[in-house]
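FORM 12-B: Structure-to-Sequence Request
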């Protein structure tokens, strides 16, 4: 019913959407999972009403990919290093018959961005420098990893072709290489829509 309402362009409150998740996951929503309206705007921009392959860098519980695959023609891929969250995302997609998405259990450093055409980044590495915000203790969290992951993303994005689209939410832009320009901004500057110009 929730995904049907999304398709009919109804406004869905985050509390309502998050009811598809177990309580332990719902409790993490405000800090870690993309708000419904942000996901809607980002997915429309990134897929551009085409079958683009969109990578969610640090997909968590899969919320952005689920909404994107439901609302657009894009193919959404979420990479997440916590296997439990990958399995949960896969189960929800299966239960709600949502296709054109794939959840990948991997560290971001194992992913080549050349396999994708557009990118979503909701500051997935922040918990490495602010431990109070950690999802859990199942993965290593260090300040060094924050900078190495950000640098990996920056290098990978720098290799993408002109015209590549990127959306960042609550990012300090550490991972954005030269050549990307902001086309639009929303949510008091927290949500930014980028395109690679050179």
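FORM 12-B RESPONSE
SEQUENCE OUT:
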């Amino acid at each position: 019913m929730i995904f049907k309402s999304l398709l009919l362009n109804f406004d869905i409150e985050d509390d309502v959407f998050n009811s598809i998740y177990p309580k332990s996951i719902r409790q993490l929503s405000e800090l870690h999972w993309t708000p419904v309206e942000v996901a809607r705007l980002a997915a429309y921009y990134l897929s551009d009403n085409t079958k683009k392959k969109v990578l969610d860098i640090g997909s968590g519980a899969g919320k952005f990919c689920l909404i994107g695959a439901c609302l657009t023609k894009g193919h959404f891929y979420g990479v997440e290093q916590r296997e439990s969250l990958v399995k949960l995302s896969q189960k929800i997609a299966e239960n709600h018959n949502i296709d054109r998405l794939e959840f990948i259990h991997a560290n971001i450093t194992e992913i080549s961005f050349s396999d994708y055409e557009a990118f979503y980044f909701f500051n997935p590495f922040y918990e490495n420098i602010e431990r109070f915000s950690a999802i859990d203790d199942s993965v290593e969290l260090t300040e060094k990893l924050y900078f190495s992951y950000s640098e990996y993303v920056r290098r990978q994005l720098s290799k993408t072709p002109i015209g590549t689209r990127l959306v960042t939410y609550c990012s300090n832009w550490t991972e954005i290489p030269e050549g990307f320009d902001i086309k639009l901004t929303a949510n008091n500057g927290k949500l930014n829509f980028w395109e690679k110009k050179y």
